[in-house]
Amino acid sequence: MATKAKSRWADDEADAALEAQRKKEKAERKRLKAGKARKLEAERQARDAAPREADSADGPPAKRRRVSPEREATQPTTGSDGPSGVPKLLRFEGGTFGRCRSVENYDKLNDIEEGAYGWVSRAKEIVTGKVVALKRLKIDPKDRGGLPITGLREIQILKDCDHRNVVKLQEVVVGDDTSRIENIFLVLEFLEHDLKSILEDMPEPFLTSEVKTLLQQLASGIAYLHDNWILHRDLKTSNLLLNNRGQLKIADFGMARYVGDPPPNLTQLVVTLWYRAPELLLGATRYGRAIDMWSVGCIFGELLTREPLLQGRNEVDELTKIFELCGVPTEETWPSFRRLPNARSLRLPTGKAATGSAIRARFPLLTSAGVALLNSLLALDPERRPTAREMLAHEYFRQDPKPKQEAMFPTFPSKAGQERRRRRETPNAPARGQQAADFGAVDFTGIFSGREREERGGGFSLRMV
């Protein structure tokens, strides 16, 4: 019987030899891998044994703290806690959220004032007898959005701040009827005065040494805020509090917010009109610390004259007063200002008289260093305004008279008492959601008529008889 023919696809001797070589190489790789694993295991055991040997010399070994979940080495089995092969969550004891205290723990004494974002009253804690300021947040009960973003920002920023020139938030309390969201109160430290009321009622202006003390404290508080990426965005004398020991504190953070570098697009509807920087009036939406420094410049001038420096009736009138005092912007003094939305169609005067600053003529008794500081704070170009740290290092504060010590500061009757005082009508900060101003074509060419005949500088003349 003939043998069965071999298929032409069957393996020959060469194929068998190649297959044997492959099996040999695979076994060698497996052996090397196992040897490497044994070496790593030996090194790990040596590292673990070293601390145990050191501990055994001094006493019993310390218990090893487990700081991360580890998988069980055994096979997964199902139990009451789930599969043993799945890492278990570690639980650490920590604080818990509790209920806010009730506002009934405080006894209201009298109303102080109403601001743009809340009502402020003087109150006394019943248990301790400590006098505090109680600020009730303004919340529209018809607004279904809940707590407004301005209130959340104010609470967050005040909780984060810890500086001697920033008002301290002690706690947040609520009314007994927790179903009504409008009953939310901030418990703040109490200060006797706000700077605006003092300026209105004091018979004589602050001394130069006192002005320097107030400005130093203001700049110190602003430097702290800016170092922590906080813009106040509503600095004015009514938001600066002063106690009877000469200590100034920045208050009312309803418009404040955190920013980054570079800052994001922000709303231009910030800062009370009389203290609003020109770039905001011209529609800028990308701005930074310089808007607060412009407000500091306006406060500087107000401390010297006891009157708000730039009292515009509306945005156009405010810009007019700014240009009259600081000069008209040009490409040299404020590059690229024409790119701002409200500056593209403005008609501005030309000539040397229109571009010069009138601050020296407005403040004839101010020293050269003081004029230089005020000019820099009220620079039209925000890039040329000093930072709060640079302001603190200015020569103005090193000249005589030196800043007065806080303990030597004069005292005043407390406005927070139930005294009746005259109160001037002043503008409030812009309301959230308000429509931004659109200037269109505005003609400023006539605001400097007759300036060339204006007296320059200060001085006096003797009349001979």
Provide a descriptive summary of the structure in words.
The protein is an alpha+beta fold. The chain has a domain of 253 residues: Orthogonal Bundle (Transferase(Phosphotransferase), domain 1), CATH 1.10.510. It has 11 helices and 10 strands. The protein has a 5-stranded antiparallel β-sheet, covered by helices on one side. Helix 4 packs antiparallel against helix 6 and helix 6 packs across helix 10. The protein is extended and about 110 Å long. 29% of the residues are buried. The C terminus is likely disordered. This is cyclin-dependent kinase. InterPro entries: CDK, CDK11/PITSLRE_STKc, Kinase-like_dom_sf, Prot_kinase_dom, Ser/Thr_kinase_AS. Belongs to the protein kinase superfamily. CMGC Ser/Thr protein kinase family. CDC2/CDKX subfamily. GO terms for molecular function: ATP binding; cyclin-dependent protein serine/threonine kinase activity. It is an enzyme of class 2 (transferase).
Outline the secondary-structure elements.
Blueprint: H1 13-58, E1 106-114, E2 118-125, E3 131-137, H2 149-160, E4 169-174, E5 184-189, E6 193-194, H3 195-201, H4 208-227, E7 230-231, E8 240-242, E9 248-250, E10 257-258, H5 278-281, H6 290-305, H7 315-326, H8 352-355, H9 359-362, H10 368-377, H11 388-392
Antiparallel strand pairs: 1-2, 2-3, 3-5, 4-5, 6-8, 7-10, 8-9
Helix pairs in contact: 4-6, 6-10
Short recap of the structure:
With 465 residues, the chain is of the alpha+beta class. Helix content is 30%, strand content 10%.
What is the average per-residue confidence, as pLDDT, rounded to a whole number?
81
Q: Which quaternary structure do these chains form?
A: single chain
Number of helices: 11
Principal-axis shape: extended
Main pleated sheet: 5 strands, antiparallel
The H-and-E topology, N to C, reads as: HEEEHEEEHHEEEEHHHHHHH
Helical fraction equals 25-40%
From the N-terminal CA to the C-terminal CA, the straight-line distance is: 161 Å
CATH class of the domain at 194-446: Mainly Alpha
Radius of gyration of CA atoms, rounded to a whole number: 36 Å
CATH superfamily of the domain at 194-446: Transferase(Phosphotransferase) domain 1
Number of strands: 10
Strand order across the largest sheet? 1-2-3-5-4
Q: What is the CATH topology classification name of the domain at 194-446? A: Transferase(Phosphotransferase), domain 1
Strand content: 5-15%
